[in-house]
């Protein structure tokens, strides 16, 4: 579904006291002209990602003079981050994770860079599509439903590692790529930093959700080997599943146009996803153009589809932890993501590459 018109609040969001950003960078008592230690650490985190973004931009052959423009991006973004360190109220501040992402995207787009991760997304999607059948068959072979659901959730965590917004992971990825199966096996042991897995599996056993909205995150293994097997299992139970993906490219996040193409490649001529009827699977444009999301600003199409949802899934660190970890909904909700920034691990009191599965059951 195409997005058009102004952005509106997600109808199942409890809007009173809603604040998109999870981690408070500052408090009302802080000096407005002086950056807080939290602001400084996050500004430095974004500064650390500049070299990998510049490298991607330099290699963008759709943009004339890409290397010179990439250098301009690096300089301009670094200058803005320095300005924010001197005066947190500059450039629309005080900064939070949404503003820091917006400023980066804005500079890239102004310099003509529309999708600097396009090539790596295409490569990773092709790789993940070739592995999809094996991952699904492995899940289907698990007879015990509770064990199967746990395996699907572990698959979401493993897929979520493919995140080129994290400087460390971008470096690791450039060096030797990532294996989905190895990632599944190498997850940190439970209990995770937020671990509602048992609670979620118990509720799943009641098969009570009729309509599920899933906010998807990255391309490649994340959406194809993590989210789609999970969505397929929900379809098998008879639920309608709506995958909400970004309107515009941002980092290696999947866009809704790309997701439509991916699913077309995975479905057979009878509209089935490896034997499961996918006529109840919808893909919509979330109206978003960042790797984080403010749920008070989504597309009207998504708002219409979500009005009768009974489960909302926020997947990935940007949408599920850095924003919306404490969002409240008028239906069940699930946040599922891997912790990929030391600053997030510190805030949660967990470890780097720890897992978060936060399940809230709605009670009227």
UniProtKB/TrEMBL annotation:
- In what residue span(s) does the Damage-control phosphatase ARMT1-like metal-binding domain sit? 47-356
Domain of life of the organism encoding this protein: Eukaryota
Needed cofactors = Mn(2+); Ni(2+)
One Pfam family of this protein, by short name? ARMT1-like_dom
Q: Keywords in UniProt for this one? A: Hydrolase, Kinase, Manganese, Metal-binding, Nickel, Transferase
SUPFAM superfamilies from the UniProt entry? AF1104-like
- GO molecular-function terms, A-Z: hydrolase activity; metal ion binding; pantothenate kinase activity
The identity of this protein, by name, is: Pantothenate kinase
Q: What is its EC number?
A: 2.7.1.33
